[in-house]
Design brief:
This protein has ten helices and eleven strands. The strands form two sheets. Strands 1-2-6-7-8-9-10-11 form an eight-stranded parallel barrel, surrounded by seven helices. The protein is an alpha/beta fold and 261 residues long. Strand 10, helix 9 and strand 11 form a beta-alpha-beta unit. The longest helix is centred in the last third of the chain and has 18 residues. Helices cover 43% and strands 20% of the residues.
Length: 261
């Protein structure tokens, strides 16, 4: 039996080429025009509670580096041309691609992470929302809400984030925990393993297979690595800054298999 094709998520809101930053309307439009399955949306929350598309924790605002969480949305929009709110991004994706929400903030009781997930589900509908974060408690809250209300979405626990700035012993402990993450998955009740591609090669692809969980691999750009991970059965979804390359590899494989039949 043929294995299903690997899905493609455009990293950073589309990975637009040129001077425009990721996460702009142009980036999203370019991604959906390519025919990707998902567009990754890095979501942060401003000081006044607005959900925004923003990868970095800090941005240059008013001539100095400030945390996104400490600045109001309008001030951020004035400083960063093209900055999108989550609702604006969902409007672009509706009926065209799924939303891969990568939640990059934390709130007490995970109430705002849940708000981002439910809003996306309200707009896009069942089967069109993948929520990922490195916070097991947020994944658990979203998963429990989804099951209790019968509103399906997919939740994935991210493994392999940056440990820069932490003490060396803590970095070592965190990296060891990433290679053996079973306890974190039990805590989160996540439905997918979301792994840095090097960690996936080292151990997490094997962990996902044994646990019977879909594997989401990030961020894969090199042609050799893309050809590896786009092979059916190795991952469920690949996040990439080169969605056009990933889609071309997938299309070539599909044509080859069709010719073999």
């Amino acid at each position: 039996m043929a294995r299903p094709s690997v899905l493609v998520s455009a990293h950073g809101g589309g990975a637009v080429r040129g001077p425009d930053p990721d996460g702009t309307r142009l980036a999203l439009e370019q991604a959906v025009a390519l025919g990707v399955d998902y567009v990754e949306l890095d979501v942060r929350r401003s000081r006044d509670g607005v959900l925004l598309l923003c990868h970095d924790r800090e941005l240059h605002v008013g001539g100095r580096l400030r945390a996104v969480a400490d600045v109001d949305a309008d001030e951020l929009a004035d400083a960063i041309p093209g900055l999108l709110r989550l609702d604006e991004a969902l409007e672009v994706l509706t009926g065209r691609a799924g939303a891969h929400l990568d939640l990059k903030f934390r709130s007490p009781g995970s109430v705002h992470e849940l708000a981002a997930a439910t809003r996306s589900l309200d707009v896009l509908g069942p089967g069109e929302v993948l929520v990922t974060t490195s916070n097991p408690r947020a994944i658990r809250a979203i998963r429990d809400w989804s099951v209790a209300r019968g509103r399906p979405l997919l939740t994935g626990l991210s493994i392999g984030g940056s440990v820069a700035g932490r003490p060396p012993l803590e970095q070592l402990r965190l990296r060891q925990g990433e290679l053996f993450p079973a306890d974190r998955f039990v805590e989160s009740r996540a439905e997918a393993v979301v792994a840095n591609h090097w960690l996936a090669l080292a151990s997490l692809a094997r962990f996902a297979r044994r646990a019977g969980l879909p594997l989401v691999v990030w961020t894969v750009d090199h042609p050799v690595l893309l050809r590896y991970w786009m092979r059916p059965g190795r991952a469920w979804l690949v996040t990439t800054n080169r969605p056009e390359r990933a889609l071309a590899i997938r299309a070539g494989r599909n044509r080859s298999e069709a010719g073999a039949d």
